[in-house]
Structure formats: C-alpha cells, structure tokens
Amino acid sequence: MARQERAVRTRQTLVDAAASEFDRSGYHGTSLNRVCRAAGITMGALTFHFSAKDELADEVQSQGQLITRQALDGLPERSAPALHRAIDLTLELARLLEAEPVVRSAARLSRERPDRDLAWSAAWLTNVQDLFDQAYHDGQLHSAVRPASLTALSLYLMSGIESQARADHESPDAEPELSAVEQLRQIWGVVQFGICGPPGTGC
Amino acid sequence: MARQERAVRTRQTLVDAAASEFDRSGYHGTSLNRVCRAAGITMGALTFHFSAKDELADEVQSQGQLITRQALDGLPERSAPALHRAIDLTLELARLLEAEPVVRSAARLSRERPDRDLAWSAAWLTNVQDLFDQAYHDGQLHSAVRPASLTALSLYLMSGIESQARADHESPDAEPELSAVEQLRQIWGVVQFGICGPPGTGC
Predict the structure, then answer these.
(1) Which residues of A touch B164 (CB under 8 A)?
(2) pLDDT for B73-120, tens place per residue?
(3) Looking at the partner chain, which of B139, B170, B195 has a beta carbon nearest the beta carbon of A145?
(4) Is residue B135 part of a domain?
(5) How many structural domains comprise chain A?
(6) Which structural domain range is residue B129 located in?
C-alpha cells in the first residue's frame, strides 16, 4: 500500500472512531486517548492528523454534512409531488441517523458546538423548507397551514429521531416497538390527514 | 438566619448554579469549579453538600422531575376533552423548558445519563399516553390514528423544543420568529386538522 493511501486510511479510521465516541459521550465526554484506543492508533499518529479535539470534531461534522448531502442528492427527483418529496427527505434523514454514527454524531455535535459554522441541519433544512413552500404553492397543503410550521416540525422530529436512534443503538437488546424510521412514517401519516374523529366529538 | 435555613439556601443556590451550567455545557462539560464560581460558594461548602458531580446532577434531575409534576398537577382538571388536555400538557412542558433552567437541564441530563433512573420524561410521559388513549376511546381521534403515534410525536416534539429553548436562551438577541410554545401550538393545530388541501391535489 502506498504511503499516501495508508495515511488516508488511518485518518478515516480516526474519524470513524471519533464519530462513535462523540455520538456516545458528546464533545466534552470524549477523550483523544479513548479515540486512539478505539481506533487502535497511537496518540502520535492521531496528532499527526489532527492537532486537537476541535479539529477532529470539525472533520466529523463536515463528513456528516457531506454524507447527508450525498444521500439527499441520491433521492429520486422531481416527479413526485413536493409534499411527498419533503416527507421522503425526512425519512432518508431518519435512516441516516439510524445507520450512520458519523451523521448521528454530527447532529449531536451541532447542538453541543453551536458556535461552529457546521450545523448538521444546514445540509438539509433549506431543501425541506423549499419543498414545503412548493407544496403550499401547488395547493397540496390546506391554505391555513403555514409551511414554516412544517419546517419547524421537521426540525423537532429530527431532534427526537436522533435521540431515539442513539438510545436504540446503545441498547440494541431493548428492541423498540417501532424503528425510528417506521415511527416517523406513521407520524407523517397522522399529520397528513389529521387526527380528529368525526365532527362533534370535541376534537 | 438559623444555621439550618442558611444551609438549605446554600444548597439550593448550588443546585440552581449547577442547573445553569449543566444546561449550557452538559454533564461532561461542567466542572465543579465553575459551579462554585457561578454560585459564589467555596469548593469546601460545595463538597459539604454534594460529594461528587454525580450527586449534584442527580439532585438537578430530581428537582426537574418535581417541578414538572407540580406544574402538571396545577393544570385544570377533568372538564376539557382528553385530547385538549394532552395538548395543554405538552404546552405546559414547553413553557417549563423555556422558563426553567432546572427543567431544561434535567431534560438534557436525562439524555446524557441514560443509566440513571431519573429520566425527565418519567414525570409526564404516562400522563400524556393515558390522555391520548382516553381521547381514542372517547372517539375524539380518527379510528386510523394509533394513540402510540401521538405519544411518540409528543416525545419527539419535546426533544426539539428543548433544543430550541436552549438555543433561544443562549442567544437572546437572535429573536426567533416564534417562541417554542407558540410554535408548538401551531404544530398541534396542523396535526389536529391535517395538512392536506382539497382531494385531488396529490397530498
């Protein structure tokens, strides 16, 4: 293996190990010593690639944004109505939060390091907002619905999904009744058609 | 002031200072030194009341649960339909998350210390669940709606509100378009009546 290739692999091994640690223990709860142990790499090699924890966290957040953008770029385009595309986008985000420690970690670090310009939501929030605006203009939404409420709802939902996905990941034996993705799909079904029973039931 | 009363006040000053620090920086990001400085109390006095950070965090979480239960006990009883009571309960939780650092801190610590038996949601989740079940049995909900989806939705919403309330609190000048409570009220309006426009618009 060429020296450069080896360096790239070592660097990525460190980023993946750091992502798992940040995901589990947060920024302040993660020590570079533990990242080294988890990665099976010496502290000398770590500091060759990243001079401080800050840099490592920045890289995890950047990769989390990148993975998210790439996944969203891979979603089917244009043909479906805007509302369905907005919902599918949030389902894809939920899938990423469940499956990708780097993404889950980027979401957590965004909250813990709000001063860094690397918010995970920057990778998707504008897309969601545009799709809800489009759905409204296309008449898909009831005229009393503010698209901004649905954008806020999506942000809140992702925050909850992130927590559930982390808890499920930490206690794989607890077996939740529904996966986060399935739970989210049901919630959107509820939101689309409303929860009220027949008129006159006090809903 | 009697010695005992003084001790009780000192203890509460420490808990309040710790709540603000845990809220802002999380469990691992909080040092007892900083708590002492914020409380204006010596480390000797702190360790007289709390032998370790763990104990202080336990006390913050217990008080967060207690404040929450007391606030919910103070809500008007029985007369309103169950669905409205469930929604009002979540609005009260949002108010607490906005106004009470101890509650916001308890919510954060619950996520960061899942092994402690002090989850903030234990103070309210069963109530919400029972009210949604009741609303379903009373025919207030559409028969296709699973009450469990609404309980999960409430949990996700509180996770998002917690984040927004913390961000608003940390950057009071940023002035969000809507407070977390108002945002939540609009979201429940949307959820009650659904978001779909007239049939045939592809919703």
Answers:
(1) 155-156
(2) 988 876 789 999 999 999 999 999 999 999 999 999 999 998 888 999
(3) B195
(4) yes
(5) 1
(6) 57-192
Q: Is residue A83 very low, low, confident or very high in pLDDT (cuts 50, 70, 90)?
A: very high
Q: Do B192 and A194 touch (CB under 8 A)?
A: yes
Which CATH number do you get for residue B150? 1.10.357
How far, rounded to the nearest angstrom, does the alpha carbon of residue B148 sit from its chain's CA centroid? Answer: 20
Angle between helices B180-193 and A180-193 (to 10 degrees): 70
3-class DSSP state of A85: helix
Contact A177 B148 (CB under 8 A): yes
Question: How far A138 CA lies from chain B's nearest CA (Å)?
Answer: 8
Contact list in A for residue B178 (CB cut-off 8 A) is: 152
Residue A22 to residue A20: CA distance in whole angstroms: 6
Decide if B25 is inside a domain: no
Q: Which residues of A touch B29 (CB under 8 A)?
A: 26-28, 112
A193 contacts B196? CB cut-off 8 A: yes
Question: Does any domain span residue B1?
Answer: no
pLDDT above 70 (res B63): yes
CA distance B54 to A92: 37
CB-CB neighbors (< 8 A) of A192 in chain B: 194-196, 203
Identify the weakest region by mean pLDDT among A40-49, A76-85, B112-121.
A76-85
| ipTM associated with this complex | 0.91
H helices of chain A, in order, are 3-29, 32-39, 43-49, 53-73, 82-99, 101-112, 125-137, 147-170, 180-193
Size of interface A-B (CB pairs under 8 A): 173
Q: Is A94 within the bounds of a domain?
A: yes
Output the DSSP codes for B45-113. HHHHH-SSHHHHHHHHHHHHHHHHHHHHHTSPPSSS-HHHHHHHHHHHHHHHHHH-HHHHHHHHHHHH-
Q: Is the dihedral of CA A115, A117, A120, A122 positive or negative?
A: positive
Local confidence band at A1 (pLDDT 50, 70, 90 cut-offs): low
**Cβ of A179 under 8 Å from any chain B Cβ?**
no
The answer on pLDDT for B131 being more than 80 is yes
Question: Cα distance from B7 to chain A (closest Cα, Å)?
Answer: 32
Average per-residue pLDDT in chain A? 92
